[in-house]
Amino acid sequence: MGEKEVVKPHFWILRLGEMTLKSRPVRRHFQRSMEQSLLDLALRAGIDLHIEHIGSLIIASSHCEYGEVEEVLCHCFGLQSVDRAIPCSASPVEVAKTALESDLDFGKKRTFGVATKRSGAKGEWGSQDFSAEVGHYMLEGDGTLSVNLSNPDYPVRVILTKQKAWLLAEKINCPGGLPIGVQGLVLAKISNEADMLGAWQLMRRGCRIISQEQSDEGLLAILSSWDSTITDAKKAIKSRSGPGRSTGEIWGRIGDVEVKDEVKDEVKDEVKVGKITPASKLQPMCGWTPEEMSALGAHIRNPTTAIRPSYDNDLLTSWIA
User: Fold this and answer.
1) 317 φ, ψ to 5°?
2) Would you tell me which of 46, 60, 111, 299 could form a disulfide with 148, CB atoms 3.0–4.6 Å apart?
């Protein structure tokens, strides 16, 4: 009986955005919340996902297919982007060999450029010396290559640590914003497309949505791929991780919420609604054009194909990046 083939995991380097501007304790709290949300999304999608920290790098790994995992990563608030990554030994020869093996245009005339970013303590190599050596061995391995550092056909990006190098491949944009739940609770009655878009915008700003019973189930199902607690008010309240998490006060509301009956009976004992300050009426979609709302709706439904536009796009500056 033959030995079972070992399936090697795929790797991604996770890039944080806005939360890196926070103080160290706040960033630590936000990062824990983001990682927990990511693991919850992976569990719901039925994929294995492991997160580890190597120095300042956050590495995710999985034995599932790239597309399956990236579908989950693209639904995680707080993640700015991820890079597919191939681990190598911290050797220019090994990195050059891996880069050439990964190039679908191997043997064709093309330009390349190597850029190395060092992470953590300096080891044997400096970043510029490492890039030069990788380039040397790539030229030896494929004579059709030529160097172009400013605008290469094949950019070779490397992250170098003391013990390992990571060859970066495709970059995937993620929603950015803040991790779900770190900015408290917002009550929502989601009855139409605009309410759904507004709820998503608040989720992206770190709010956890408490949905009313009269909300449209189809629209809630769309949002549940970003945060499964939106269909369960009790679970949403217990999952709170933001300011006032010991009291669970709802600070805002969107949609046609009935002020006199804002919270479902089964959660009234667990949450307060504007006890000190009345809950604010929020209108996240104020000023948006139908075209912009349509583009955002397409992105929410399928972020891997309806990609968020670049920051220099006129479409409301990439939905208020």
Assistant:
1) 45, 55
2) 111
